[in-house]
Predict the 3D structure of the following.
Amino acid sequence: MAFTVAIDGPAAAGKGTLSKALAAHFGFAHLDTGLLYRAVGARMLAGVEPVEAAQTLTADDLSAPNLRTPQVAEAASKVAVIGAVRAALVDFQRAFARRDGGAVLDGRDIGTVICPEAEAKLFVTASPEVRARRRWLELREGDPAADFETVLGDVKARDDRDMNRASAPLRPAEDAVRLDTSDLGIEAALAAAIKVVEKRYRSAR
Ligand code: DC
């Protein structure tokens, strides 16, 4: 049986952790769609034209070692405004979403554009300051000199680009359940998300 869980929201809201844990809880497959845009961004930084990079993306590109760096995140957010880049990635995401056995996809436009018919939709948010702080704590592990104000500026710039682009901008689907994780730990956020999905899953079976 196909069952799609769409998780959207801004950068560093906790979508990744939540999506992985939800997928594990229900035994569903998980696709971090940001990784597709990051892989295209990384190829652009390596000199490949972005549309061509998206059209010829391979599994190897998705396991490149530098995909989590701030430089690649920035490049991903830039290639993500290009309509032809987004179009090249649609079929793969839709096929993944409808695979047998259930799937969780996290990104920016899953509930609105990729899977408007998803059985469960969550829009995960947190304030820019909380998100920047989480990102900063992560970055500091590898770089003790990481500066909070710079990270906050990057988070806001990425929000602005993701929300104000013409092609598939970041916004909650009308039927998405909003989950603000500003004051929630991962356990509480996961419990709330499980509740939402459980209800839909029960009625779909
Ligand atoms: O979720 P992330 O930080 O890995 O995403 C990196 C960039 O990719 C993000 O700034 C916007 C873009 N993106 C998108 O436009 N649509 C998606 N479904 C996922 C990511």
